[in-house]
Amino acid sequence: MIEEAHSLPPTINLKEMAKTFSYLWEHGLLDRAELDRRADEASGKTEEKMKRIREIEDRQREIS
Q1: Which value, in Å, is the radius of gyration of the alpha carbons in the chain?
Q2: Residues 8-29: pLDDT tens digits?
Q3: Cα 12 to the chain's mean position, in Å?
Q4: Cα separations (Å) of 49 from 38, 44, 54?
Q5: Mind listing the pLDDT tens digit for each residue in 30-44?
Q6: Beta-carbon contacts of residue 26 (< 8 Å; ≥ 6 apart)
Q7: What is the extent of the structural domain holding 54?
Q8: Which of 45, 47, 25 is nearest to 34 (CA)?
Q9: Cα 19 to the center of its chain, rounded Å
Q10: Which member of 8, 29, 37, 54 lies 3.0 to 4.6 Å from 24 by CB, making a disulfide possible if both were Cys?
Q11: How many domains does the chain have?
Q12: Is residue 21, in this structure, part of any structural domain at all?
């Protein structure tokens, strides 16, 4: 068992993995389909907001 722990790649941080798992568990995101759905939803909202920012910036350039 100890040999296995030493054979993990050095980039694996078990504390961070545990925190990530806890977050996913607490927010009901352990199901891949639900995680994908929420990520797509967030991405769509971001795209909408970026479009609105570009519209505002374009309008600011027009009036300045």
Answers
A1: 21
A2: 666 778 889 999 999 999 999 9
A3: 19
A4: 17, 9, 9
A5: 999 999 999 999 999
A6: none
A7: 32-64
A8: 25
A9: 14
A10: 29
A11: 1
A12: no
